[in-house]
C-alpha cells in the first residue's frame, strides 16, 4: 500500500502521535510518508491507497486551517482516509466534523484516533489538567492504531463496509453548542487582539515563520498580525522577547469556570476508563497563567 500521513502540529504533541501511528503502519507495511499540512501536494493525494490527517483540537473542533484544507480538497471519491487528533480536556465535535467534511469530498473514512495531550495556552495555568499526556501508554495506543487502521482499510476494500468509521457520540453535549458558537466570524469579534511592540521586536521572524496561516508581516506599516488568524496564540507563545502583547486578563478570568467543566468531563472520562490523571487537579494555580510564567522567565 502507498500511505501518507498529513500532520498539523505546533507544540509537537500531534507530531509525536503521528510518528507513533506511522511506526505502527510500518509494522505491517513497508513504508509510510509523513508531510506537514503546509507542504501537502494536493494533486498527489489521489495516488495514495490510504491517507491520514491529524491535528490538535482548537475550540472544540478542528483548527480553521485544517477545516479550510479539507474544504478545498478535490473530489476523492472512494479514497480511504483516517483521522486523528490530540486534545486537552474534551474531544468535543472534532472527529465528527472532520469525518463529515471528508465524506462530502467522497472520502471513505476508515478509522479515527484521539489522544489526550498537554495544553499550552497563554491564559491557562501550567501545569494544567492534562499535563503529562501523551505518555508512554498513549504512544503505544497510537502505534497500535497504526497497525489496526491498515487492516481495517484492507478489509473495507474487500467489501466489509461494517468497518467504516463512525465517530462516537459526543458525551459532553455542551461542547456542541460551544463549537457552533465559536465560528470564525464570532472569534474575530471576541478574541484578544494582539499587537507587536516594535521597540521590543528583534526581527527574528519566528512569529512570521511559525504562523500556520501566514497572518503576520512585521515589515508592513503598521506591522500586520492576526490577518488572518486561527487563534492558536503560537506567535505570542514563541516570541523570544515577548514583543507580541495583549491584555490577557478577560481570558484569564474565564478560566476557573471553564476548568470546572473540563474537570468534570475528565472525571467522567476517567470513570469510563478513557482518561488517566497524571497530575493532582486540585494543585492547579489559576493565579499563575503561562504568560506570566514566561514574563518571569524573561526577567531572570
How would you describe the shape?
globular
Report the order of strands and helices: EHEEHEHEHHHEHHEHH
Helical content class: 25-40%
Based on the coordinates given, report the CATH architecture of the largest domain: 3-Layer(aba) Sandwich
Low-pLDDT residue spans = none
The biggest sheet, with number of strands, parallel, antiparallel or mixed sense and barrel status, is:
5 strands, parallel
- The CATH topology assignment of the largest domain is Rossmann fold
Tally of discrete structural domains: 2
Based on the model shown, name its key terms.
single chain; 300 residues; alpha/beta; Rossmann fold; 2 domains; five-stranded parallel sheet; two-stranded antiparallel sheet; 10 helices; 7 strands; globular
Characterize the structure shown.
The chain contains ten helices and seven strands. With 300 residues, it is α/β, with parallel strands linked by helices. It folds into two domains: 3-163, Rossmann fold (3-Layer(aba) Sandwich), CATH 3.40.50.360; 174-299, no CATH class. The relative contact order is 0.14.
How is the secondary structure organized here?
Blueprint: E1 3-7, H1 13-28, E2 33-36, E3 50-56, H2 64-71, E4 80-87, H3 94-103, E5 108-116, H4 136-157, H5 174-181, H6 184-190, E6 195-196, H7 206-210, H8 234-238, E7 244-245, H9 249-271, H10 290-299
Helix pairs in contact: 1-4
